[in-house]
Amino acid sequence: MAKLVATLASTHHPFYLKATTAPPEQQMPEAPTWKRKIEAYRETLAKAEPDVLVMIGSDHFHQIFLDNCPQFLIGKAERYDATFYNEEREFGIPKYVLEGDEPMSRFMHQHLMNQNFDFAFSNELKIDHSIICPIITVRPQNDLPVVPIYTNIFAPPLHTPKRFYEVGRAIRKAIDDYPSDKRVAAIGTGHLSLELGGPRQFMETGPDPEFDRQAIEWLKSGDIDAILENVTHESMAQSGNATHGFLNFILMLGVAGPEGADYVDNLDLFHTMEAYFTWYPKEAAA
Amino acid sequence: MSKYYVNKFLYTVDRDPELLQRYIDEPRTFVATWEQSIGPKLLGNDVEASTVHSLTHEEREALVNHDYQALFEMGAHFFLNLTLFIGIYDEPYMNRSGPLSFQREMAAKLQHWRGKDYPSVET
After folding, report:
1. First-to-last CA distance in chain A?
2. Does residue B121 sit within a domain?
3. What's the domain of life for this entry (chain A) (predicted)?
4. Fewer beta carbons within 10 Å, N or C terminal of chain B?
5. pTM above 0.95, yes or no
6. Structural domains in chain A, sorted by start
7. A85 touches chain B (CB under 8 A)
8. CA gap B16, B30 in Å, rounded
9. Band of residue A84 on the pLDDT scale cut at 50, 70, 90
10. What percent of chain A has pLDDT over 90?
11. Which residues of chain A from 93 to 152 reach within 8 Å of chain B, CB to CB?
């Protein structure tokens, strides 16, 4: 059976590449610290020596739109293009091609369906910054095949926090049951408190620093009970209109299991709190 | 209710540099063209068209006037409403007033929504 060797959950920040590759005199003051933290986080993946990456993100209305919007979707393709025109325009993220692992996608899709999770699938999925940002940060050599999974965190109605956790558990089981000797790392990205297109956007901190501190503590201790008791769609909206990206952190805690994280770091940036977590599995999913 | 159609406008224009330039250059003409010949097309299909959507007068005027405040208040999706107007205004604002100046002006114009439930973006 395949072996899950690491679970990474982090925020994704599309400005990272531009912020850290600009000429030094044009870089924001936080850029050197940001780069150091990312390189330390990258090492938590490298030391696990993965063969394949299961990557969880959320399309930001780049390929998926409101005419046909799945709650959960798995990519099943031999390779994936990445970066849309408007992301190049806004963030300076270049084009990428990611190799897929179609047999693993196929297995996981069937396994998730067998667990009663109705995943949509795509044979032509173009990846956006929710998945290319973590490639840039934790695997910039882009040398591993990926199984991409998209969640809907943007277009109401959204699934419940509990369902996101359960999907994470199901993904973990599908990885554990994959008949292969591959070493698998799961990497998912989302948000802490975040506001986009609203009155609290691009302030000096994220819109709800108190939620950010609390969320980091919950994830650090793996306290899914506290998360499910306290985090609702309404509470996330109060913390910022794009805070629903926290659902992907909940999903990743499902992949890791309700355990304390082995690596935790964060960085307060100009309009959002960055956070980085890694869990190394203690045992297979029940 | 045509919130979907407003979002479809924002979505189709934001992802296409040629459409974006036309929207910058001649917004009233472009919105009319979009409504007649681009909006009705099914996404990913140049042959089939839909007959079931149209913009309201208020929505049409908000799009013509690049009125992102009105669009926010009508429940246009916050991400689409932000990224399209970043595509139009970020660079000129940055050249004049520095990084993120457009984004901060947009936030300033929406300050009266702080502490309130924002208009729903559900379609």
Report:
1. 15
2. no
3. Bacteria
4. N
5. yes
6. 3-279 (3.40.830.10)
7. yes
8. 13
9. very high
10. 94
11. none
